[in-house]
C-alpha cells in the first residue's frame, strides 16, 4: 500500500496531502511508500530507496535472493550494517547507507509516472526491539509518516525515554499524518512484564538450581541484553557451544531445501517455514575423483533432503528432471506457490569430470524448458576445464560439511552466464564388404548417442550408423585424444590405482611419454597427421563452406569453446593486432559468440609452450561450423575426444565414408563465481570491446542440410512436454493406432506407408 500517495488532480504538488491528523494504518511487514519511490522491509525491487528496520528473518525476505542484493541503496542502522555481511555475504557493501540513531538523510526522488521531483527527509529513531532496530520518520513534500516496525518502549526504560525525545525533536512540533504501526501484540489480552523483571526471574531460577547446566536458546538477535545481565548478576561466563552453530547452519540450509513432495507425486504435501531462495538439485558421479564422489554424496545427503541428491550411477538425469518438471507443473496448476517458486529459482549442481557435466548440459538442452535452470560444476575430474573456466576451481574439493556449505553459499551468490552449445553429428556409411564396424555403445562418451533412421539406399548399404551429441568445452582429434584414450582404458582395468587427482595427472604424463607424444615425428607415421586423416571445412558467419588448410606437421586439432584445455591452459592465447587483422580473427574470443577457436599442435613439446605466459598453439581459424571428412584408406581408426571423454573411431578402408560435422546449437546457462575467467558478450561490452560477429542466440541451419533431422536434439533426453502437450500426443497416438487398424483391414499399402514413416522417426539411446 502507498505510504506517500500521489497528490490528487489539481492539487499543488508542494502541499501536504490532506488527511486527518493521527490516522492509523495497521499493516503487515513490508510496505512500499509508492510505486517506484521508497520501500520499508520490502525488497522485491522497483523502488528508488530501501529501508531495513532490523535483521529478523520476517523483515528481510527478498534480501537473500540468488546473486545478492543489487536493487538500490539500502538504509539501516550502524549495527545492522556491521552484521549484514554475516547474514547476507553476497551483498554489495557500497549499497549500504548506515544511519546512526537520531541521524537524518535527505532523499531526492521522482514519481516514475510523471517525473515530478519529491523531496523527503528520513530520520532514524531507536526502536529497542533488538540490536540495531530502528523506526523511520519520513517528512517532506508529501506529508509526515512514521513507520515503527517492531519496537519495545517501556515506561521505566531510560533508553526508551531517550528514543521518545529523539522522535519529538525530529517532529519539531509537526503532526504525524500516517502511522504504520506493528500491531502483532496490541491486543489487550496480551500483557508482557518489563524486560528487567523477566531477566531477574531467570537469574533467580538459575540460582535455585546450582547443580544444573543451563541452556538458553538464542537463535536470533534480541537476547544479548539478557545474556549480559545473567553474566553480571552471577559473575560467570556465558559459553556459546555448537548448538548455536547448528541453528545458524540449519537456517542457512533452508535456503537450499526442496521438500520431498516436489519430487514424489504420491507423498503428502509438506508445510515449509520459508520458500528456499536457492533451491538446488545435486547430481554426483560417484565414480569420479576416486573415493571423493562417494564421500561427497554422503555429505550432501546429510545436509540436504535425500530426495534432492542423486547418484548418476543409479539414476539418469533425464529421467529425474522429466519426473520433477512434470510433477511441478501439476502442483503449479493446483495453485502450489512453493512449487512455482522452486520452479522459478531452481539451480543444478553436477559433481564429476567435464564429461559428466556435459551429460547434464545435454539433458537440460534437450528438455527444451521455457526457463532452463543454470548449472554449477564441482571439479571431480582430472582436467576440470569447465569448473575452472567459471571460477569453481580445478582442484578436487573437500568433502566435509564445511567445504560443502561453503560451496552451497557460492552457488547461492553465483551469477548466471550463457555459453554456446555445440552439436556434433558423426555419420558412418559403409558398403556390404566394408570392414568398418560401428562403435560399441559402452565405448561411447556420455554425451554421444546413437541415432537410427533408414538409409537412402537400403539395398546398397549394409548399415548407416549416425551418432549425435554435444559439447561445451572442446572437441579434439589426434594424439592428445590417443593419450586420453590410453588413460581411460588403464583406469577401466585398474580403478584402484586412480584414487586422487595428483596421481591421475602423473599417470597421464607417463602415458604421454610412452605413447610417443614427445617424439611424434619418430614414433608415428605421416598418415596419423590431421592433414592426411581428413579434409577439413569451416563455415564462418557468412554461411559459406571453405576448405581449411592444415599444416602437414599438425598431429592434434582442437575445436575450443572455453578458455581452458588440459587442466587450465589456454591454447588460443592472445594474438597480436597484426595477426588478428591478417587472419580475420574476432577478439577477444567469447563463450557466447557462436564461434569456435580451432587450434593445432605438433607434439607434446608444442603443448608445453602453453605453460609460458604468451604460449599458444597453432591458431588455424574461428568458425561457426566445422566439418571433417575422412580419407579412405589413410588409417583404420582415429582417436577423438569430447569434453575429456575419448573414444577410438573406426575409419573405412574402402569406399565407405565417415563424416563429422560440428555446428552451433543454442546456449545453456552456467553459474559463474567472481573468479570466472570465461568472458561473454556482456563482459566484452563492459570492457568496450567491439565484437562484430557476436551472436548470442543464432542457430544458422541450411534448409538443405543433410543433418537437419539429427541436429534437432543432442539425443540426451526427450523434450519435456507440458500437460496439454501430453494430452494432445495421447490423442494423436490413439488416432494413429486406429488408422493403422483400419489400414490393415482396408488397404495394405497404407499400412506399409505408416510403418515406413515410423521407421524414419529418431530413436534415442
Automatic annotation (TrEMBL):
GO molecular function: ATP binding; ATP-dependent diacylglycerol kinase activity
Name assigned to this protein: Diacylglycerol kinase
Pfam families xref list: DAGK_acc (PF00609), DAGK_cat (PF00781)
Sequence ranges of Basic and acidic residues compositional bias: 15-28
GO biological process: defense response; phospholipase C-activating G protein-coupled receptor signaling pathway
Subunit: Monomer.
Enzyme category, top tier: transferase
PROSITE patterns: DAGK
Source organism (scientific name): Oryza meridionalis
Protein keywords: ATP-binding, Kinase, Nucleotide-binding, Plant defense, Stress response, Transferase
Amino acid at each position: 500500500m502507498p505510504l506517500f500517495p500521489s497528490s490528487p488532480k489539481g492539487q499543488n504538488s508542494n502541499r501536504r496531502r490532506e488527511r486527518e491528523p493521527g490516522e492509523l494504518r495497521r499493516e503487515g511487514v513490508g510496505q512500499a511508500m509508492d510505486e517506484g519511490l521508497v520501500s520499508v522491509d520490502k525488497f522485491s525491487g522497483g523502488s528508488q530507496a530501501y529501508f531495513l528496520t532490523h535483521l529478523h528473518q520476517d523483515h528481510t525476505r527478498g534480501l537473500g535472493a540468488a546473486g545478492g542484493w543489487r536493487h538500490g541503496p539500502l538504509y539501516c542502522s550502524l549495527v545492522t550494517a556491521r552484521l549484514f555481511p554475516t547474514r547476507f555475504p553476497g551483498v554489495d557493501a557500497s549499497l549500504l547507507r548506515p544511519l546512526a540513531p537520531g541521524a537524518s538523510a535527505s532523499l531526492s526522488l521522482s514519481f516514475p509516472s510523471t517525473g515530478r521531483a519529491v523531496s523527503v527527509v528520513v530520520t532514524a529513531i531507536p526502536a529497542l526491539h533488538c540490536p540495531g532496530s530502528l523506526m523511520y520518520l519520513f517528512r517532506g513534500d508529501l506529508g509526515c509518516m512514521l513507520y515503527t516496525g517492531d519496537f519495545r518502549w517501556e515506561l521505566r526504560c531510560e533508553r526508551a525515554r531517550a528514543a521518545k525525545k529523539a522522535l519529538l525533536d525530529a517532529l519539531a512540533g509537526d503532526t504525524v499524518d500516517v502511522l504504520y504501526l506493528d500491531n502483532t501484540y496490541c491486543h489487550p489480552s496480551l500483557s508482557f512484564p518489563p524486560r528487567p523483571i523477566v531477566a531477574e526471574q531467570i537469574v533467580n531460577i538459575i540460582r535455585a538450581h546450582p547443580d544444573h547446566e543451563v541452556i538458553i536458546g538464542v537463535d536470533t538477535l534480541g537476547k544479548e541484553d539478557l545474556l549480559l545481565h545473567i553474566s553480571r548478576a552471577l559473575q560467570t561466563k556465558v559459553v556459546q557451544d555448537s548448538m548455536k552453530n547448528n541453528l545458524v547452519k540449519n537456517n542457512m540450509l533452508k535456503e537450499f531445501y526442496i521438500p520431498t513432495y516436489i519430487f514424489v507425486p504420491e507423498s503428502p504435501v509438506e508445510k515449509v517455514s520459508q520458500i528456499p531462495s536457492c533451491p538446488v538439485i545435486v547430481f554426483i558421479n560417484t565414480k569420479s575423483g576416486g573415493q571423493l564422489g562417494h564421500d561427497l554424496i554422503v555429505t550432501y545427503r546429510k545436509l540436504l533432503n535425500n530426495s534432492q541428491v542423486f547418484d548418476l550411477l543409479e539414476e539418469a538425469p533425464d529421467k529425474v528432471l522429466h519426473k520433477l518438471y512434470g510433477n511441478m507443473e501439476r502442483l503449479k496448476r493446483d495453485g502450489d506457490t512453493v512449487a512455482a517458486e522452486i520452479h522459478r529459482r531452481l539451480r543444478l549442481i553436477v559433481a564429476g569430470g567435464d564429461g559428466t557435466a556435459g551429460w547434464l548440459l545435454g539433458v537440460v538442452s534437450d528438455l527444451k524448458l521455457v526457463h532452463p535452470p543454470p548449472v554449477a560444476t564441482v571439479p571431480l575430474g582430472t582436467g576440470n576445464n569447465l569448473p575452472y573456466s567459471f571460477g569453481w576451481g580445478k582442484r578436487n574439493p573437500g568433502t566435509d560439511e564445511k567445504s560443502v556449505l561453503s560451496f552451497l553459499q557460492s552457488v547461492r551468490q553465483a551469477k548466471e552466464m550463457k555459453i554456446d552449445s555445440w552439436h556434433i553429428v558423426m555419420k558412418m556409411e559403409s558398403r556390404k564388404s566394408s570392414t568398418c564396424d560401428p562403435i560399441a555403445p559402452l565405448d561411447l562418451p556420455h554425451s554421444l548417442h546413437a541415432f537410427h533412421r533408414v538409409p537412402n539406399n537400403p539395398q546398397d548399404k549394409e548399415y548407416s550408423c549416425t551418432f549425435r551429441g554435444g559439447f561445451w568445452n572442446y572437441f579434439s582429434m589426434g594424439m592428445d585424444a590417443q593419450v586420453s584414450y590410453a588413460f581411460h582404458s588403464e583406469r577401466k582395468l585398474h580403478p584402484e590405482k586412480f584414487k586422487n587427482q595428483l596421481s591421475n595427472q602423473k599417470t597421464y604424463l607417463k602415458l604421454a611419454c610412452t605413447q610417443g607424444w614427445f617424439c611424434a615425428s619418430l614414433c608415428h607415421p605421416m598418415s596419423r597427421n590431421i592433414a592426411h586423416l581428413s579434409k577439413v571445412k569451416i563455415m564462418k558467419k557468412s554461411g559459406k563452406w571453405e576448405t581449411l588448410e592444415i599444416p602437414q606437421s599438425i598431429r592434434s586439432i582442437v575445436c575450443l569453446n572455453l578458455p581452458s584445455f588440459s587442466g587450465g591452459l589456454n591454447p588460443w592465447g592472445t594474438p597480436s593486432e597484426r595477426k588478428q587483422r591478417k587472419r580475420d580473427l574476432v577478439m577477444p574470443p567469447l563463450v557466447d559468440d557462436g564461434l569456435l577457436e580451432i587450434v593445432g599442435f605438433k607434439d607434446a613439446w608444442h603443448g608445453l609452450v602453453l605453460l609460458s605466459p604468451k604460449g599458444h598453439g597453432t591458431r588455424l581459424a574461428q568458425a561457426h561450423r566445422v566439418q571433417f571428412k575422412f580419407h579412405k584408406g589413410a588409417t583404420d581408426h582415429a582417436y577423438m575426444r569430447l569434453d575429456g571423454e575419448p573414444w577410438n573411431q573406426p575409419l573405412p578402408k574402402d569406399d565407405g565414408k565417415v563424416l563429422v560435422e560440428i555446428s552451433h546449437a543454442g546456449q545453456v546457462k552456467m553459474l559463474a563465481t567472481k573468479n570466472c575467467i570465461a568472458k561473454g558478450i556482456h563482459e566484452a561490452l563492459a570492457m568496450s570491446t567491439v565484437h562484430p560477429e557476436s551472436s548470442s542466440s543464432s542457430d544458422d541451419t541450411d534448409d538443405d542440410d543433410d543433418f537437419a533431422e539429427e541436429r534437432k536434439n543432442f539425443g540426451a533426453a526427450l523434450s519435456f512436454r507440458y500437460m496439454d502437450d501430453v494430452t494432445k500426443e495421447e490423442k494423436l497416438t490413439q488416432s494413429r493406432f486406429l488408422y493403422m487398424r483400419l489400414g490393415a483391414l482396408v488397404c495394405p499399402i497404407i499400412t506399409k506407408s505408416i510403418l515406413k514413416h515410423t521407421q524414419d522417426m529418431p530413436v534415442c539411446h
